[in-house]
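FIELD: query
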Amino acid sequence: MRIFSNKDEIHTLCFDDSVVVYQNEEEEKSGAERFLNFIVNTLPSSNSLTKIKKFSLRHQSRVPLENDFSRLVYGWIWNAMKQGGLLELHLECSRDQFDIDRVLLTSNTLVKLTLSGNYNFGEDVESLFFPALKSLSILSVSGLGFEEYSRLVNGCPVLEELFITEDDGGDDNDWPYVPSWSTSVESASIRRLVISNDLPYNDSSKEYYDETYFKAPSLVYLDYSSVVFEDYKVVDLVSLVEVKLDLRLWVSKKMFGDVTKLVAGISNVRTLHLSPDSLEVFHFCCKSMPVFNNLLSLSIQSSKEKSWQVMPLLLSSCPNLQTLALKGLLHRVTNKCGDACACIPTKKRCACIHKKKKRKTCCLWTCQVKVLEISEYGGSFQEL
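FIELD: result
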């Protein structure tokens, strides 16, 4: 537990029992009950004048929640909201699913909200409204359907930041599908969007990766990490300035999915960051490369397991590029690197030596950039 306070105001109040390890089930139950009682006894009463600015609760739900925990703890959060002092609320519940009380779905002062774990919105989502909320984080919320998600985003008229994370939580069981709420974002106010989809995927789950939809006219920054979807619908991303992409191919079928519309939809950006996997996705799953007329800074991360086939086409599509940053030079050697590098596949190396054929000029040498940054250079034979 952490408390930062002054006379009439508690700035930060954090409770976390996730780091506690118990020896057996009986000790776990007893310890969990003591933890809940401690929270209730620590929190200010409903008639207290003490205001809380930030409240964080992370609990494992080790004991049944049909007790007074819901009424006392979550009821107190509502009282803090009514007092007008609560600005940040961060809730994380693992294990058993917990129903979000309707009183937590409306606040006139809350500016930052984080939900993580097994929370269920039930039927009270109709009244959801956060008129002051500017930052919303949805982190692997298992009980959140598409309707609830849509109501949540639509109930935040001045929302500026949206963070969406979906993973399996380290479980061994394969997740059968990707939640629909993590594949669709529509908001007129969002300026910063971060999406990370790291769920297990295989051939049987392809039907759930049919389309991703983006419509955010005020969006300035996009950080998107996911396996490739079959198609993308991108509408009105005219304000984009910076994009970070980590797109991954399907292991069983590289040619699955089409990112053509996604790449075209972000072609007006000024700064672009690409992961090693994204380079391969651009090569295998992008039917046509748009011209990035506004692109001034391009950052590319390399990996010895991923190839550079798309590099010549990508660089030639950035006529006004000023800064090129390469994080590592090692990449998988293929016969389709074009003129992006001097690497030659082993099978063709001997033939090139005997033919004494004049080699093409590397596009990295002729690229009209003012600044070339190379990091993580090891001086190995493959890099020279």
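FIELD: remark
The helical segments are 25-42, 69-82, 146-154, 260-265, 276-285, 311-316, 346-355, 363-366.
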